[in-house]
Amino acid sequence: MAETKKVLIAEDSSVIQNLTKKILMMQNYSIHSAKNGEQVLKALESETFDIILMDINMPKMDGMECSRAIRAFEDKEKSSIPIIAITGNAKNYSIEDFKDAGINEYLQKPLNFDQLVETVKKLTN
Questions:
Q1: Fewest CB atoms less than 10 Å from the CB: which of 21, 58, 60, 64?
Q2: d(CA 56, CA 117)
């Protein structure tokens, strides 16, 4: 049987975090969560993930800043983890802004959960 992929959901909205968690758990992903960018970096100190779902607007450290910090890690495995940005205001950012921050893909809120699952599968295979 295939190894269970580990997903880190960085999202300050409990509702979105719980819905996303349930959807991905039904797809047999192992889910970990964080409420802000600082918690993401702390989680990465002790664990490795197969993918990160990164809310762009979070308290303490936003998703863009957190993504840049991850890409700056010396540990190549951790610095290259695929990152999917999740944002309600993608209009404020260009594709180039996301790429410059090291983000692989972005999804618009409200989330299309079929698209979420498809994107996570694509980036973890």
A1: 60
A2: 19
Range of the domain at 36: 6-124
The DSSP code for 72 is T
CATH code for the domain of 46: 3.40.50.2300
* pTM for this model (two decimals): 0.95
Task: Record the tokens describing residue 69, joined without a space.
Answer: 């910090």
Q: Are 58 and 65 contacting, i.e. CB atoms less than 8 angstroms apart?
A: no
In a domain? residue 28: yes
In a domain, 1, yes or no: no
| Amino acid found at 105 | E
Residue 101, helix vs strand vs coil:
coil
How far CA 102 is from CA of 31, 49, 99, 123, in Å, comes to 22, 16, 5, 14
- Please indicate, yes or no, if residue 91 is contained in any of the structural domains: yes
Q: What is the Cα–Cα distance from 44 to 92, expressed in whole angstroms?
A: 28
pLDDT digits (tens, 9 = 90+) for 2-19: 689 999 999 999 999 999
